[in-house]
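Shipment paperwork, digital attachment
Item: protein structure file
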Amino acid sequence: MKEINKRIRHYRRIRNFSQTDIAERLGLKCSTYSQMERKGDITCERLIRLSEILRVDATTLLYGEGDYP
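Attachment content:
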């Protein structure tokens, strides 16, 4: 199973968002968001907000729904 950071990156790319786009929507610096996406270190609040932005269930971001490139 892939890690949460890879699933977040996968859905971000599907939605054609840059890291800067997501960082702005979360109210973060791009460098903070980039680190979060690289390491997969994310709070519950940010996970919920990300799921809303990316239009995908938070459970899917956490546990996956298949295998992603």
